[in-house]
Amino acid sequence: MLIAIVIVAALFGMLFGFDQGVISGALPFIKQDFTVSAFMEGVITSAVPLGAVAGTLLAMVTTDRYGRKPMLILGALIFLVGSLISALAFNQYVLTLARLLIGVGIGASAMTAPMFLAEVAPARIRGTIVSAFQLMITIGIMVSYMSDAAFGGSGDWRWMIGVGVFPSIVALIGILLSPETPRWLTLNSNADKARDIIAKLQPESSPAEVDEIIAEIQESAKDEEATPAWSTFLKRGILPVTSFAMIVFVLQQLSGINAIIYYAPEIFKNAGFSGTTTDLLATVGIGVVNVALTVVAMYLVESMGRRKLLILGFIGTAASMALVTVATMMDVAATPYLAMIGIFTFIAFFAVSLGPLPWLYMAELFPLRLRPRGMALASIANWFFNFLVALTFPELLASIGIVGTFAIFTFFCVVGIVYAIAAAPETKGITLEEIEARTIGA
């Protein structure tokens, strides 16, 4: 049952990843059909992260009241409708509005799914389970690149985007058949049902151990406000958690990952590669590396731990971005290949560290009653900077070129090294209730 639920919840990561990646291959053909300016190209691309801010706010005000499961059902429905409208859009403005709608669904589910996974997972494998969300993001990106490559020859961007309808139907059916999280049920006076679900999720646990889990959840929520004030996030012990969860997402975005995901063909063109098919096949390679190294991350996050892995990730991405920057400055025959090595290495380090860890930290660090609002703050930081990168990248590329643009990303990766060393906590193997006790007691 645990495996089935993890697969279903992680599927929402696939929806997220698919839409992130598919626009990179579809944009060249959309620009041909609709005569899109550089600014409008940024608007179409950044509409999803902008809509995701609204989706995050929606999830924040509903997940505690109505539960994690209903929010995921709504997210799947919104993504399904948005994907259909995108594939049928008759001008760039309808396409932009449809992508805003998709963003709402992605924002709501991207905040709720890691929370759902963290709340159903046993402590000893929670890192691996929550990282499954990031794995499915990378699988979604890879599938989108394959869709782009499959329809790239005909230039049919509508089918490229329309493929996203199918995983959204699977996710919708799967979450309809899944239970609510035991923690939410316990918090809402339904401990008996929560006890039954925990027993099914952790069949190796004795009745006494299940009762102990329920008692820990009840104890952690006993003295907290039903709807905590926003000022709670400024309290000693909570403020460092809040700032870390937000800043690590900001640095994740400013590393340049979504510039690569959204605009991979454009980047390869600027690096010296030619031909649409070559660009699309190169992006498929990015998708494969992304998936493979995210699988590795699911092991390392429990064996190496969160803190060391985050530091390693920023060191690797900084070195990789520096290689891309230097390679594109050289203007020699080997430039395209050095740039490709740098980009692939960047993807590898990102996938093994910067990709899954912010989602995992966000789901782990906040106390139970603060979790929806805390995760909303972190998610809004993520989506707002995702929006800024997606909106400004075409203009940056046109104004300061690929060298200057990637030099900026390199700088923020270096900042990430310093920040991770100074602030990253370790949460490996600790129950959510123990993490909460440490946070409140700090």
TrEMBL record:
Gene transcribed to yield this protein: galP
Alphabetical UniProt keywords: Membrane, Transmembrane, Transmembrane helix, Transport
Gene Ontology annotations for the cellular component aspect, listed alphabetically: membrane
InterPro entries xrefs: MFS_dom, MFS_sugar_transport-like, MFS_trans_sf, Myo-inositol_Transporter, Sugar/inositol_transpt, Sugar_transporter_CS
Membrane topology listed for this record: Multi-pass membrane protein
Descriptive protein name: Galactose transporter
Subcellular location: Membrane
The species this protein was found in: Martelella mediterranea DSM 17316
Transmembrane segments: 34-59, 71-90, 96-117, 129-147, 159-177, 244-264, 280-302, 309-330, 336-362, 374-393, 399-422
